[in-house]
Amino acid sequence: MEIGSDFYRELESITLNCKKCGGTGFHRSARKGRVQCTCVAKITKALALHKANIPVRYQNFDKRKLTSAFKAANKRSLDLFKEQTDDINAQVRNGSLLWLFSKPGLAKSSLVGWVLSRALDQGAVPYYLRADRLAGLRMDAGRDSEAKATYQYIIDDVDVLAIEEIEKVYLPGHMTYPAQSFYSALADIYDTAKFLIVTSNEQPVEVLRMFPDYLGDRFTEKSVQIGFSGKSGRSSHA
Ligand SMILES: Nc1ncnc2c1ncn2[C@@H]1O[C@H](COP(=O)(O)OP(=O)(O)OP(=O)(O)O)[C@@H](O)[C@H]1O
Ligand SMILES: [Mg+2]
Ligand SMILES: [Zn+2]
User: Fold this and answer.
1) CATH number of 161's domain
2) Atom 3 in ligand 1: residue holding the nearest Cα
3) Ligand nearest 25 Cα, by number?
4) Do 66 and 20 fall within a single domain?
5) 46 alpha carbon – ligand 3 mean position (Å)
6) Looking at the structure, do residues 27 and 59 belong to the same domain, yes or no?
7) Own/partner pairs for 219-224, CB < 8 Å, 24+ apart?
8) Residues with CB under 5 A from ligand 2 (ion)
9) Are residues 149 and 213 in the same domain?
10) Are residues 167 and 150 in the same domain?
11) Are residues 42 and 82 in the same domain?
12) CA-proximal residue: ligand 1, atom 4 (nearest)
């Protein structure tokens, strides 16, 4: 994993600016002696979020930040979402598939970031990427050792995989090389025990129509589909 110098300084500043330990990373307790400061756990978490490839803007989303209008309009969806993300390790064991769909700006990516961060807290290994990147990694793995290592990490080590914008690999027909690579990647993933989370702007049934039958059936069989409705959260930020 590459760590740029800016990110390194950011990590370093977590302890350096910590008021609890005065930048040492530990403090002394009469009963327990030398105790690691909570700022060290913050660094570990920040590194893990980085390794999970979660965009920074989605790393700190909290469900409590959801607007009350959104909560009111999506009560059943949010209840189902809660049920599906309560015990992450159970979802990994089940090989569950959670599919979030809505028009743009309705908090899908934010909620995905929240689940992946929660996965870390529950001891599972998360990873985030967009569908086009997954297709690219599968294509490049044959000749690029870095792509190969990342792809193998996703297949072998990742427990909770988020694939965003799954319909954006709309490709002319099933038999183009990128499309084939994408479907091969999904087949590879399907053969491992993972909690898979996908997002789309289109209805799942429309997206699945684009898939080859063998994949479409597998993905329909296991998926819990949750749609969100309402006004884009982006407009209020614009
Ligand atoms: N209901 C909401 N309450 C609070 N903030 C929201 C809500 N919906 C969206 N936002 C905020 O609006 C911005 C866009 O949301 P986000 O990127 O999660 O949407 P999205 O559903 O993934 O959109 P897209 O389909 O375009 O990928 C983010 O900053 C997010 O935190
Ligand atoms: Mg999004
Ligand atoms: Zn500290």
Assistant:
1) 3.40.50.300
2) 66
3) 3
4) no
5) 14
6) no
7) 219/97, 219/186, 219/190, 222/95, 222/96, 222/97, 223/97, 223/98, 223/99, 224/80, 224/84, 224/96, 224/97, 224/98, 224/99
8) 108-109
9) yes
10) yes
11) no
12) 66
Separation CA 22–CA 111 (nearest Å) = 34
165 C-alpha to ligand 2 centroid (Å): 7
Both tokens of 221, joined, read 């069989």
- Residues with CB under 6 Å of ligand 1 are 61, 65-67, 70, 102, 104-110, 201, 233-234, 237
237 part of a folded domain? no
Number of domains in the chain: 2
- Structural domain of 5: 1-51
Residue 117 included in any domain: yes
Q: Which atom of ligand 1 is nearest to the CA of 201?
A: 25
Claim to verify: residue 82 and residue 136 sit in the same structural domain: yes
Dig out the tokens for 7 from the structure. 């990110």
pLDDT in tens, the chain (238 residues): 778 899 999 999 999 999 999 999 999 889 999 999 999 999 999 999 999 999 999 999 999 999 999 999 999 999 999 999 999 999 999 999 999 999 999 999 999 999 999 999 999 999 999 999 999 999 999 999 999 999 999 999 999 999 999 988 766 555 678 888 999 999 999 889 899 999 999 999 998 888 888 888 888 888 999 999 998 988 654 4
User: In this structure, how many other beta carbons lie within 10 angstroms of the beta carbon of residue 28?
Assistant: 10
**pTM score over 0.90:** yes
Q: Which helix H or strand E contains 87, and what residues bound it?
A: none
Shared-domain flag, residues 2 and 91: no
Ligand 1 atom index nearest CA of 66: 3
